[in-house]
Task: structure prediction
Amino acid sequence: MKGDRLYDVIQFILNEATEQELEVVRSALKRRIEGNRARGAMGVNPERLARRTASSIREQLGLSLDQIRSTVADFAAETLKKQAPELTDDQIHELLDAWVPESEKSRGRAGGPLPRRPPSRGLHWHS
Result:
């Protein structure tokens, strides 16, 4: 049966197909051949799967890091307000910017060591 179908397809291609129909057949064959090269077991394209998975993980980690950053910044601000009420809001924001960067790009600013003791009366640091 399959031999009959194959014979019919070959007969159509060789004797009946128009130029447009041959272009459709050529495109379909090209797509089929290139698709099979990129596919692994069970028709899965491992490269595409790996890229999608990596993108999803990167996105989820980014969201998690932002949530952690926000939680740490809120905790640090509340702690500073309770333990050092003499600090102004601007001083607290300056400390938070140095200690809890907003993104990975600003991480370099916070890469240094933290002060050994909390600030007393303004921003006098002893490292």
Q: What stands out?
A: The chain has a mean pLDDT of 75. The longest helix spans residues 46-83.
